[in-house]
Amino acid sequence: MNIYELVQNLYQELCSPEAANDQIQVRSDDSQTIQQIQAMLANPVQRSVQLQSRKQGCFRWTEALHRKFCIICTALHWDQARPKYICRFLPELSPDVVASHLQKTRNELRNVGQRVPVPTCFQHDATFLRISEYWAQHQSRLSDSEIKALLTQ
């Protein structure tokens, strides 16, 4: 049981009719957790620090999802891609996850070529070749509808 479920259960117990009569029975294994929750609720600074420090599960990028991410970043240009804009095409991801992956991928690309390359970094793939041709002709990013069309291929 995680902290969220414990707080939810505690809240439900405190709001129950039995709570008005002080008839709630606390199991011995829950008493320490309840004390921790009460201490956390009493100190808002400590509460925010504890909530922020609680590590979320590690997000795993699948190969297909990473490919979509690379298509979007290449279409927008790697130096100009922003997490908020990328999330418009990958709404199932949080901006924090996208920002972290963008930073990691940019750093990897920079380490290989000492700068983030123009969208020819994935020349083995037909989608990236189409993006490269577009960049060569227009010198601007693809439109939203063009990016969505590339993602559905």
From TrEMBL:
Tell me where on the tree of life, at the top rank, the source sits: Eukaryota
User: What InterPro entries has UniProt attached to this entry?
Assistant: Homeodomain-like_sf, Myb_dom_plants
One GO MF term on file is:
DNA binding
Key words of the record: Nucleus, Transcription, Transcription regulation
Name under which the protein is recorded:
Uncharacterized protein
The protein's organism comes out as Hexamita inflata
Q: Recite the lineage of the species.
A: Eukaryota, Metamonada, Diplomonadida, Hexamitidae, Hexamitinae
